[in-house]
Amino acid sequence: MENGRRLMWACMLMWAMGAGTSRAQDAGPDLIAVPVKDIFDVIRQLRHKPPPSEPAGPEDYKKLMITAAPVIGYNPASGFGIGLAGNIAFFRGDPATTQISSVVTSLKVTTKDQLSFNAKINGFTAGNRWNIASDNRAYWTNQDTYGLGTSTTPDQAANVKYDYLRFYQAAYRKLHPNLYAGAGFLYSGYRKIEPNPENEPGTPEPAHIAHSEENGFALDKETSAGTSVNFLVDSRDSSINPSRGFYADLKYQMFFHGFLDGTSTWQLTHADLRTYLRLTKDARHRLAFWAFGNLVTGGVAPYFDLPSTGDDTYGRAGRGYTQGRFRGERMLYGEVEYRWTMTKNGLLGMVAFLNTETLSNKQADEKLFDSFATGAGVGLRVMLSKRSKTNLCVDFGWGKKGSHGVYFSVQEAF
After folding, report:
1. Dihedral sign, CA of 303, 307, 309, 315?
2. 265 exposed, middle or buried (CB, 10 Å; 0-12, 13-18, 19+)?
3. Mean pLDDT, residues 65-79
4. Is the pTM of this model over 0.70?
5. Distance in angstroms (rounded) separating the CA atoms of residues 253 and 232
6. Residues 224/302, Cβ–Cβ less than 8 Å
7. What is the pLDDT of residues 303-351, one digit of tens each?
8. CB 15, CB 289: distance < 8 Å
9. Residues 356-402: pLDDT tens digits?
10. Domain residue ranges in the chain
């Protein structure tokens, strides 16, 4: 794992080279030189059905691209889960001047009494004049909690039940090609927080209790509500399945005590960087790089709103660990993923990924880089929609101290 961490951070040094190379290769073919097939083409072939007639009108780009797939997953914290995930992709303007928009939704239930609903929107108006980003979640769930920092161990786990509602909205205005500025409204509310009655005797006290008592917060609810100032650079060829371009999202988030029952006043600085490197001209072999930081830079955040594993918009960071496995006042994360389109028609692909994260714990004097949580894994890709390049993603991830999981989605991790 130590060598994996060193490799991970070394890969992050390739950011500038990756961004420059992807721009240099923009003139190359977009994917593959043979007709692309998705799973529905295969089903039609097996049923000896003719392919659908190709629409030829100039307004064809306005047609919705809808995909859906069952999701089945497992990890020790949530047990087996089953549900449905869907992706609606569309263009609000000419694809030559407008990025693709997407709505990603999922509904999932697990064998450990967890029910979750997600709706994420990344939309662009005609000519990319506006970008609308939305992260909405409604959970009736439970989660294992741990102390802060990256050095916590599995025997510190204490399961906590709660209801959760998130409503994060942001609007960006284009200032220059690929450059945007905007503002956001943020609401995150936890209710009915309590230790799970099914916890075994001798289970440690849930970590949120000590954090809440130390800072004078209520034990049964937490709320963070406020606004944000946002800047965005996005030159990717697609937000659903990018193969080139650069992405940088910078946010300064401000939460206020008493605003919509806010628990405390605190601030968070967020930076998210991504770039993509084509290893072959046909883009069948690619590298993708992702790095982000979530830093509480003022005040004291409620326990469940502290930066944590898998709390990014699409919940894809930290594959190999469960959501919330590591938590701290400050968090840095890095990942590199190799992507290979195995079949020339684009139907099947695979990925291999390596990630690492480090979090701080001020109370224990644990700083960033004192310890790391590294994960790795492999995944399979099946093309669900050739028009939107949406893949069904199945990933198998492993982390330290026996952590592991299976992850399903209908959009690339980043």
Report:
1. positive
2. middle
3. 81
4. yes
5. 14
6. yes
7. 999 999 999 999 999 999 999 999 999 999 999 999 999 999 999 999 9
8. yes
9. 999 999 999 999 999 999 999 999 999 999 999 999 999 999 999 99
10. 2-53+65-409
The CA-based angle 23-24-26, given to 5 degrees, is 65
- What does the alpha-carbon distance between residue 186 and residue 204 come to, in Å, rounded to a whole number? 32
Hey, CA dihedral for 232, 237, 241, 245, is it positive or negative? negative
Buried b (16+ CB within 10 A) or exposed e, 271-307: ebbbbbbbeeeebbebbbbbbbbbbbeeebbbbbbbb
CA distances in angstroms from 217 to 262, 263, 317, listed in the order given: 10, 7, 28
The pLDDT > 70 percentage for the chain reads 90
Find all residues with CB under 8 Å of 257, minimum gap 6, and list them. Answer: 263, 264, 265
57 has pLDDT over 80: no
pLDDT digits (tens, 9 = 90+) for 152-181: 999 999 999 999 999 999 999 999 999 999
CA distances from 107 to 12, 72, 388, 395 (A): 34, 11, 22, 18
Q: Provide φ and ψ at 332, rounded to 5°.
A: -125, 140
DSSP 361: B
The string of pLDDT tens digits covering residues 228-243 is 999 999 999 999 999 9
Amino acid at 189: G
Nearest-angstrom CA–CA distance, 258 and 330: 24
> 2-53+65-409: what CATH class?
mainly beta
**CB within 8 A of 203, min separation 6: which ones?**
157, 158, 159, 195
